[in-house]
Amino acid sequence: MAEKGQVNIDHLDGVVRLREEHEKVVKDCESRVLHWKKVSGDYEALNERLQTLPDQLTYDIMVPFGPLAFMPGKLVHTNEITALLGDNWFAKCSAKQAQKIVNHRMKYVKSELEDLTKTMKNFEARVGFAKNLETMTANKSDYVDIREEAGNNDTAVSKGKQRIAHKPNSKPKLDAVLDLREDEENEGEGRDEESRKGILTEEELWARLDELEKLEELQDEQDRLSDNADMNGEDTSSLSSEEEKDGDAATPVNGLSLKPSWTSVPHSKASTSIDRKEEEDDEEEEGSSLPTIFFSHTVEPKKVRINTGKNTTLKFSERKEQKEHSKRKKKNGHNNGHSHHELHKITTPADIYRLFVDVKNGELIPRKSILKSRSRENSVCSDTSESSAADFEERRMIGRSFSHDEATHSDTSDGITEEDSPTAIPLHPANRFEAFSGTVVEKDPMPSAVPHLTIVPPALPTILERKQEEVAPDAPPPEQAPKRVSKFKAARLQQK
Amino acid sequence: MAEAIQKKLNAELEKYTQMQKDVRKSMSARQKLETQLTENNIVKEEMDLLDSTNTVYKLIGPVLVKQDLDEAKATVTKRLEYINGEIQRYETLLKDMEKKSEQHREVLSSLQQEFQRAQGLAVGKV
Description:
The structure holds 2 protein chains of 2 kinds.
Chain A: H1 2-52, E1 59-65, E2 69-75, E3 80-86, E4 89-94, H2 95-139, E5 145-148, H3 153-162, H4 171-189, H5 193-223, H6 228-247, H7 253-258, H8 267-284, E6 292-295, E7 303-308, E8 312-317, H9 318-331, H10 333-344, H11 349-355, E9 357-358, E10 365-366, H12 386-402, H13 413-419, H14 427-433, H15 446-455, H16 487-495
Parallel strand pairs in A: 5-6
Antiparallel strand pairs in A: 1-2, 3-4, 7-8, 9-10
Chain B: H1 2-49, E1 56-60, E2 63-67, H2 69-125
Antiparallel strand pairs in B: 1-2
């Protein structure tokens, strides 16, 4: 820290000097501007004189004789002007021609003046920035450094091209993934404080997750031509979900840390993620003088959208899940254990059912149907009704206490997928529910799922939890609200 | 040992300051050329505004010498080209000088380090 303080002081000196230099330039510009203004005034006077001079044939004037004396005399040939053109060149011309020359020179002077004023403004702005930088380095407050690793441009570009904003909501993805991750984290590390710590240590995971997401997203995009709309919808939904989360002041870093993983999802999310990251970094920043946000665009994970219930879809990112899974294993090796992973691993449709477990009153009761949206009590796949919207915040709150995932859930199976859950999204649910026809995932009561997940080891983030109170007891049917999955994708997944 | 290094250091420093002076001279010469360039441009444009009825004079010393407008225009154009060429020359010269001064700077800094080390050793020994 001392070093960093030292660095800060050095920066401060440098910044002060920078500011001073800028100010010098500004002063210089000011003096030049004054000079040119004077010149301009002189030319104006000359113009007037030339205008009036030919009025009379001769004028009676006092002719200067040397530096101190004057002599009365006459001014003759009032229309004949010998003009200095520059560089020791003279031209004899009439008054009007001289006026033309003068006008031409005025243009030049004006252009110079404009340039100078522009430069002055520029440097004044720079001075302002330098001042800000100064206060920033001095105080280390209110400012956050945002750094983004270059790269992944392809993903971004392709994403931009392919995406068409048909759907407003892409939250579900985010939430789902976050929930899943949260669950894993929580399970591995305990709740509350631990989850916080987990988040801190998760930073790298998130970064990795983001990258993986991006990759998967790319692939996903390619696969799903017809899903463009979905993606867009999901993105917007995720964005809105993020916004919702933003409103949550209490969200601990946990919630924030989740956001970064979504940076890749929609570019629109980027800003929110950045904010989140900021907060994260603020919390996490230890030695650096400035809180630094390491922002990275990530590839959206390959996700399978499964339509479950009314309006919920799960987006499941297989690869990411696997990777996250392995990451988590490494990180929380001792905590999670293998059972965790086994439970989360989905290789067959049966696995899905395994994950969709009802709240157990002490036991996990497998559900008969994971398609049906349950009653409020134990619904794993909550629908996107108003209640879920209302509950969202609640769940988030509760979820927070358990894991940091809460914030991000919205319908998002995506979020879930990212987090931890089963590696493979069962296609069956997708097929069963509906071929994705463009339904919008509206809400994701993932948060409620999160707590469940934490409680129940094999939890995939439940898709939408109606009530957060239910959280504890509810078994988390990990299948997140399946996101809408295109037929093709569903078929493909099935075939896998 | 330290003294030898110190001498070397001083010598290098002198060379470096000399280089810096040269660089500054070239810089100022170039700037002068720049102003002349703009001036001649303006002269050229103003001559275009005139027609052959006006007489053009050139100031050579204390004498105003009559010139032909077309001749004057040609002269000014030639002068412009000459100035441009000079500017290019000075540019290359300046670059070379910059490179050399950089090298000198590096040598200087390395010598300084050596000197400091030697000094440290000397102090240690003492």
